[in-house]
Amino acid sequence: MPRRSTRLSLTDETAAESDAKRKRLSTGSTVKSTAKKSKYFEGSSSDDPEDSDDSGSAYEGVEVSAGGSDNSNSEPDATESEEEEKPKQKRRGHPASKKTQNHGSDSENEEAVPKPGKGQELWREGVKTGLGPGKEVFIKKPKARDPGGIDYVDDTIHPNTMLFLADLKENNERQWLKAHDADYRISKNDWDTFVDSMTEKIVEKDETIPELPAKDLVFRIYRDVRFSNDPTPYKPHFSAAWSRTGRKGPYAAYYLHLQPGHCFIGSGLWMPEASNLALLRETIDQNSARLKSVLRGEGLRREFFKGIPDDERKAVKAFVSQNQESALKTKPKGYNQDNPNIELLRLRSFTVGKALPDDVFLGPNAQERIGNLIEVLVPFVSD
């Protein structure tokens, strides 16, 4: 008698199971099936903080048995379970994330959204800003300091300009200046108008000075920090220079410096280029009497050399002392140590200056008082 085929036996069993399924479907009964747990289902193995929430499954409209058993005796294999769970994992957390964005005030969603830590981006999805739907934030534009009943005029400096420079020295940062841009603009305009008015006075005293606009005379407030040990981005002062070519060029200039507690007036050549310095030293070596005669001037000695007597050696010594900081310690190349003008030849800057009280710029006769000092300096600059 031939043995019954195993294949036929399996076929019969498969057919029997199919008949049983059709009967269950015809009676209308529902069979719940729980997928075998895998790494895609375990919340503890997920990197997403929302997957570890204990509030329940993030899948909406999917029946899942918490006990891990059902009415069916069949168990799907691991491969089939993983294939079914993978596409679901892509959707997991998305409804909750969307819910968090639309209803950021719910207590449940506040637990689901992690607080941003140090260095995390505040703009990333899910971070609360504290603003509800339809709310707006209005940032008021900073206003300038109240003038205090004092009008801004062209021929004097307003007290608020001094206050701004004092504040800038204490808060020399870009963010601070950005927040006080209104004060900066008004203070800079105050200085520019003062310089424009001062130009008319200087042109009257020295005919070699052209009448240039303030933008060609005023120095920028921004510092060049590329080769400096000082990282502060701004100069805590306003300044301007008048020469035959404005604030730039190889010519001697008149200089004004506005800084609370450190205002001063100066003139001459500060650290000229090597070629110009060589010509100047050659001129002094060949004809030093011209420079010494200017230094002995009565007005220069009275206003800039502390009233020294009319003595050539004392006048030269006072001039050298004002430029000693940048002078050479030895003789310059090409000159002998016993040169009678060696003190002047060692210099690398040829300037004279005088400190001014703040009241000089704030007073009603500011430009007249400064103009008188410019008149004393004219021979030193133009001769």
UniProtKB/TrEMBL annotation:
Residues that span the membrane, as ranges: none
Which InterPro entries did the record assign? CHP02453 (IPR012808)
UniProt cross-references to Pfam families, sorted A to Z: DUF2461
Start-end of Acidic residues biased regions: 45-54
Bias type Basic residues, positions: 88-101
Q: Which domain of life is it from?
A: Eukaryota
Where does the record place the region Disordered?
1-142
Name of the molecule in the record: TIGR02453 family protein
Originating organism: Talaromyces rugulosus
